[in-house]
Amino acid sequence: xxxxxxxxxxxxxxxxxxxxxxxxxxxxxxxxxxxxxxxxxxxxxxxxxxxxxxxxxxxxxxxxxxxxxxxxxx
Length: 74
Hints:
Blueprint: E1 2-5, H1 10-21, E2 27-31, E3 34-37, H2 41-45, E4 53-57, H3 62-71
Antiparallel strand pairs: 1-4, 2-3, 2-4
């Protein structure tokens, strides 16, 4: 499953990583050719957060889906 998101503030990144860390499957975030582990707060902060990011989930979790919806872009 893939979802486009936007993380606007450091608090958004912290909330996203916290939710991702609770999942027992891999979650990646990417834009262009940059790909990082969504459970790595330093990895996400190293990305260009002015861009729309793509989340790739390799599993499903209802709580994490709610977090994705919060940061989703059209």
